[in-house]
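Form 7-S
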Amino acid sequence: MASLSSPTSSSALLTTTRRKRKSWLRDSLPFWLIAPTVLILLVVQVYPGLYTIWLSLQTRQPDGWEFIGLRNYARLTEMSLFRESVGHTIVFLIGFVAITMFAGFGVALLLHRKSRFPISISPSSTYPG
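Output:
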């Protein structure tokens, strides 16, 4: 009966193996949690982006695709419509960032201000959770 209660070498080895396995799983857990997200991003964003760049370096011919290098980009920069669109994009981006920044700063100042009247909008009431 005493032999049943004392640990044997095989059970000690099994316990050590389980500890190593748990340690490995605990150490690699962040990788396994982030892996699906990285895989989805690669499939949904990186592959189509690289494929689009590859297609932009080619032209369509009746018998298939022909590699032409940067000639598409050279032709694009010669168009006045392209320069106009880049100008509109820059103005829109700068304007959007400035308006968003000032609006956010204004709301932050309004919420931070001390008032003798209760404010119905507080940071905790705007939290969606």
